[in-house]
Design a protein that fits this description.
The chain contains 3 helices and no strands. α1 runs antiparallel to α2 and α2 (36-64) packs antiparallel against α3. The chain is mainly α. It is elongated, with a radius of gyration of 16 Å. It has one domain (3-96).
């Protein structure tokens, strides 16, 4: 393993932890105020950061070490991008949702 790879893994891990931290506090805000907007915000942040970083890291490791075939690279990339889009859509919905 080279230093660049270790740095990439470290930054990905740190991003996942920070994303979970922010998502957890948004979830606490939802629980405290029962705000649907906060619920969507927390779900979006968790999807956008923790889930996608973890999925991308796991997929990269599986591809790198030959556990799965290289033909799965594009479908896997599409899956990660769809998770990112879902997270962004949840965040956008939380920002424009009118209180009921």
């Amino acid at each position: 393993m080279n230093a660049l790879y270790i740095t990439i893994v470290g930054v990905s891990f740190a991003s996942t932890v920070v994303g979970l931290f922010i998502g957890y506090h948004a979830y606490r805000g939802f629980r405290r105020h029962q705000s649907t907007a906060m619920q969507y915000l927390s779900a979006g942040l968790i999807l956008l950061t923790a889930v996608t970083y973890t999925a991308a890291f796991a997929g990269s490791a599986l591809l790198r070490y030959g556990v799965i075939d290289g033909t799965f690279r594009q479908p896997f990339t599409l899956t990660v991008r769809l998770l990112q889009l879902a997270g962004l859509l949840c965040i956008a919905y939380s920002l424009y949702r009118r209180p009921s």
